[in-house]
Amino acid sequence: MPAGTVGSLRLLLVVNSFASSVTARNKVLIHQTLSNEHDVAIVETNRRGHATRFAQDAASRGVDVVVAVGGDGTLNEVANGLAGSATALAVLPGGSTNVFARTIGLPNDPVAAADRLAEGLAHRSIERVGLGVVNGRYFAFHTGIGFDATIVRFVEKRGSIKRWFGHPLFMYAGVRTWVTDYDRRRPHFTVCAGNGSEPFGGAFTIVLNTNPYTFLGDRPFDLVPGATLDQPLAAVTFTKLSARTMLPSFLGALRGGGLKPSSTVIVQRELERLVIEHDQPFPYQVDGDYLGETKRLEFRHAPNIIDLVTPLAQHPPAGEGERPTTTPTTASPAAGDLPAQRPR
After folding, report:
1. Please, how many CA atoms are within 13 Å of residue 218, restricted to the half-sphere of its CB?
2. Run of H or E residues at 154
3. How many other CB atoms sit within 10 Å of the CB of residue 219?
4. Looking at the predicted structure, is the pLDDT value of residue 330 above 70?
5. What is the per-residue pLDDT across 291-319, written as a single tens digit (0 to 9) for each?
């Protein structure tokens, strides 16, 4: 191996073969790339929650790294299975958008990303990072409440065509939701930070564990550029959903400057806790997975809860679908093994 690398690791690939970018060829190439230096096993999911159970079992057996191969939903399930353990999380993009993988600096092509992951593993580029928590469930990058959850619900009901028409389907769902499927004239819930600030009504809230919120093609949709995995949560709430409010906000996000706070756009930072509630149920999604409706969401930040394998900082991403990492820069573990397994 190149100078500065260390020995092999035990890896488990948790693969969602139904994800839009996962193919038989990609699975073979990814396995070949990672098994050159490591002991690699593969399991495939076939229902919701399956990836979490695979990850929990791997952590209990002392597997060094679990690699989520799929979309952001697969990543979320694996993260929930590993949080609080000494087994590290790695991610390879396999979905239509792959927000988290691209946020930490991986290319959007799964085979190219496997090469970058192999470099990170060889040099033990592993950082202890924080996750968000909502009603006891961890999330890696965001939770959406209200408007975008209604969009995700529409798309998930059409899962059979999502694989082939991912981005156009989301765009169509957004327009349809705006025009016909969501009441934009009233608040849908109350937002309270619990830090002495006054509660206020919201029509659409995004709680962020990192930035960007998503990607539109190659462009990151930056809501709170300062939000990173080593900081407490951030939240953006639109108190009204009008074209006059939304269009300037979205254009600013696409330019990379984040959202400009106003009377109708509330930006909150450094949140350790947040409560969103209403006497009528409202929809929500976590890391791009629709989870139904609820009357209350309790958020908190869980710092230093999971080890994350990241691309090497000295190899900045270049090319389509990549962006610089937003994770904290910390020293990698010393040459040798990962930390000993801790009880969950």
Report:
1. 8
2. helix 147-156
3. 14
4. no
5. 999 999 999 999 999 999 999 874 444 33
Same domain flag for 82 and 32 = yes
Distance, in Å, from the CA atom of 136 to the CA atom of 95, rounded to the nearest integer, reads 25
How far is it, in rounded angstroms, from Cα 16 to Cα 42?
11
pTM listed for this prediction: 0.85
CATH number of residue 119's parent domain: 3.40.50.10330
Domain boundary (100, 125, 150) is at 125
Exposure class string for 300-332: b at 16+ Cβ within 10 A, else e:
bbbeebbbbbbbeeeeebeeebbbebbbeeeeb
Count of all residues that appear for the chain in the document: 344
Name residues whose C-beta falls within 8 Å of residue 322's C-beta, 6 or more positions apart in sequence: 102, 105, 106, 107, 108
Give the three-class secondary structure for 265.
Answer: strand
DSSP conformation letters of 203-248: SEEEEESSS-SEEETTEEE-S-TT--TTS-EEEEEES---HHHHHH
The answer to whether residue 4 sits within a structural domain is no
In the predicted structure, residue 149 carries a pLDDT above the cut 80: yes
Range of the structural domain that residue 118 is part of: 10-125
Mean per-residue pLDDT of the chain? 85
Q: For the chain, how big is the Rg over CA atoms in Å? A: 20
Q: Are strands 142-146 and 200-202 parallel, antiparallel or unpaired?
A: unpaired
